[in-house]
Design brief:
The structure holds 2 protein chains of 2 kinds. Helix content of chain A is 37%, strand content 18%. Chain A is an alpha+beta fold. In chain A, strand 5 and strand 6 form a beta hairpin. In chain A, helix 2 crosses helix 3, helix 3 packs across helix 8 and helix 4 crosses helix 5. The longest helix of chain A is centred in the N-terminal third of the chain and has 23 residues. By secondary structure, chain B is mainly alpha-helical. Chain B has a two-stranded antiparallel sheet. Chain B is elongated, with a radius of gyration of 26 Å. The chains are: A alpha+beta, B mainly alpha. Chains A and B meet through loops of A and helix 10 and helix 12 of B.
Chain lengths: 256, 332
């Protein structure tokens, strides 16, 4: 159910603004049918969330099509023109470099980069925000960037690192497939971070874009010898604080 | 009686008095002249794993694999798996297969003698991480936990990669691990305190009014741990899926019913009577904050006076809440 200013809305009034079969319509349908109460102050706030969710999916598709390699932290690589590779395998933005250009470079010179699935998700979020916000505002919002799974997240993005129990999975959510019986010699298969791409598909860096059964099967292929527990999709999701970003977006527009 | 000096292998002694390059050159020269003698030095029971690991390229060039003992071929296999080194794995195809028990002893040798040189190289550390994971996940060896915790904090101070070790730490599925990490809450090093708070998921909710005093923070955590340890269960969360993993959560149902869990990793740790099922149904209908209060109160009253606890348990849920809140005020 969707509420704007404490009033439940007729979802068709919003969804008619989006093409049939679009991801926005899928999100609205799920929100409307879901058991959770989705509350917004204004229509613009809801529309911003739809826009950012779409860009999360677009950014995930861009990364999927890129040549960024899957590498464990110990072997991670990055373009030294924009990033310093740190001892822990993370990438720290170089001094004097524009954050927006450094994020863009991951998609332009993708073959110079390699990391694991969680950091890839963080990259997806930065790119999605860069697709939504003007580069100058993006640079002001994120003057320092450290790409290292969920460990050194910028305070503005704190919520993407937190897995909260949710009633409905929505396209653009960050989800996690857990592999409890993983082979101890391949800890990178302990689970897979994915973006819900809509239509029952998920994108995970290193695995690709598939339905849940294929991802679970890939994880199950990397279990220990005497495994008795299958990999599974956790019932929680990581979501950016859409309302906070909507507010920043509005303020950016007002200042322009 | 043997003293420490006698227990050091020739190659380890040489390594401690020369640099690595000299060790490698000297060993290689020996191997060129006498492969059997070189292999015998590697097979010395007192050899440490870091020295063996250092000489892996020379072992390969001299093709000493057929002359290595079971300990060393098994260690090579672990290295090949950890480093995804298929060439090394092929060399070991015909080597004897260690039994599970032999494997375990080799892993312990790698672990016990390996940690002293943690940080030697990225790849070496990766082998140590896999060794640790095998000991914990496959052989359920919890005795290594203190070393693992120590190394997590050591590496963190140097800015090195810790996530696989943290994963091993959680995968012990043993709440005792939390107690070991809690010691770092009173460290003088702010990095230690920050990491300990993260590993323990020690949020402001649990901290209450500690005001950053390290000793009080530690004591407060221990109090929390003592109260909740019998009811902790393993969630599987780790740093790969969450920035603030909560690897252990309190089973509020168990705490409310005063049913201790036999193990943190058990899925269904206890059976319920009809009465208990009914109580839980009511319990689940209360607010989050009331559930926490009821569970805490139940634990307290059960410890002090089991008879009074029985009477309280038979009261209506709203009465229970009222009583627990009343007691809470009295306690303040």
């Amino acid at each position: 159910m969707i509420f704007i200013g404490n009033q439940q809305i007729d979802v068709s009034t919003i969804s008619s603004g989006y093409p049939a079969g679009s991801v926005e319509r899928e999100i609205l349908t799920k929100m409307n049918a879901g058991s959770e109460r989705y509350e917004y102050s204004t229509v613009a706030q809801l529309q911003f969330e739809l826009k950012l969710r779409r860009e999360i999916i677009n950014a995930a598709n861009e990364l999927y099509r890129s040549r960024m390699a899957f590498k464990v932290f110990r072997d991670s690589i990055c373009n030294p023109r924009y990033w310093n590779r740190m001892n822990d395998g993370g990438f720290s933005l170089k001094e004097g470099v524009r954050p927006s250009e450094a994020i863009q470079d991951i998609f332009i010179n993708s073959s110079l980069y390699g990391t694991e699935c969680a950091t890839a998700m963080v990259i997806v979020y930065y790119k999605a925000l860069l697709n939504v916000f003007p580069a100058n505002q993006f640079d002001r919002m994120f003057p320092k960037i450290y790409l290292m799974n969920w460990h050194q997240i910028d305070p503005l993005l704190r919520e993407i690192g937190l897995m909260r129990s949710v009633s409905d999975f929505l396209p653009g959510d960050r989800l996690y497939f857990m592999n409890p019986d993983v082979d101890p010699t391949t800890p990178e298969w302990q689970g897979e971070n994915v973006i819900d791409m809509g239509n029952g598909l998920y994108y995970g860096h290193g695995i690709g874009k598939y339905n849940a059964a294929v991802i679970i099967d890939a994880l199950n292929q990397n279990r220990k010898e005497d495994a008795d527990e299958s990999a599974y999709l956790m019932d929680s999701a990581g979501r950016p604080n859409f309302k906070k970003f909507a507010d920043l977006y509005e303020r950016g527009l007002a200042a322009a | 009686m043997m003293n420490n000096r006698q227990m050091v292998s020739y190659l380890d002694a040489y390594k401690s008095s020369h640099d690595i390059d000299q060790l490698k050159k000297t060993f290689y020269s020996l191997g060129e002249k006498d492969r059997k003698r070189a292999a015998a030095q590697l097979n010395d029971p007192n050899l440490t794993f870091p020295t063996f690991y250092t000489l892996l390229p020379e072992i390969d060039t001299l093709d000493l694999y057929p002359l290595l003992n079971l300990r060393n071929t098994t260690a090579c296999k672990v290295c090949s798996k950890a480093l995804r080194n298929e060439v090394l794995a092929e060399h070991l195809n015909t080597a004897s297969q260690a039994t599970n028990e032999q494997n375990y002893h080799v892993l312990k040798w790698m672990f016990n003698t390996g940690w002293r040189e943690d940080g030697f190289s990225n790849q070496f550390d990766q082998v140590l991480d896999v060794t640790t994971a095998l000991l914990i996940k496959k052989y359920k060896d919890q005795s290594i936990l203190p070393t693992v915790v120590n190394e997590i904090f050591e590496r963190n101070r140097k800015g090195y990669y810790i996530h696989d070790l943290v994963w091993c730490f959680y995968e012990t599925r043993n709440p005792y691990a939390l107690k070991l990490a809690a010691r770092y809450l009173r460290s003088n090093n702010p990095e230690d305190v920050k990491l300990a708070s993260e590993l323990l998921h020690y949020t402001s909710e649990e901290e209450e009014e500690i005001h950053g005093n390290p000793e009080r923070k530690y004591e407060s955590y221990l109090n929390w741990f003592q109260e909740n340890q019998p009811y902790l269960y393993f969630t599987g969360e780790n740093l790969q899926c969450s920035s603030e993993p909560r690897a252990f959560k309190v089973d509020l149902d168990a705490k409310y019913l005063s049913k201790k869990r036999l193990s943190a990793s058990q899925k269904k740790p206890y059976s319920l009577t009809k009465f208990e099922q009914e109580k839980l149904e009511q319990f689940h209908q209360t607010k989050d904050s009331d559930r926490k209060l009821l569970a805490k109160y139940s634990k307290q009253i059960y410890s002090k006076n089991p008879q009074q606890w029985k009477e309280w348990m038979h009261a209506d849920i709203n009465q229970q809440v009222k009583y627990a809140k009343g007691q809470g005020r009295e306690a303040q």
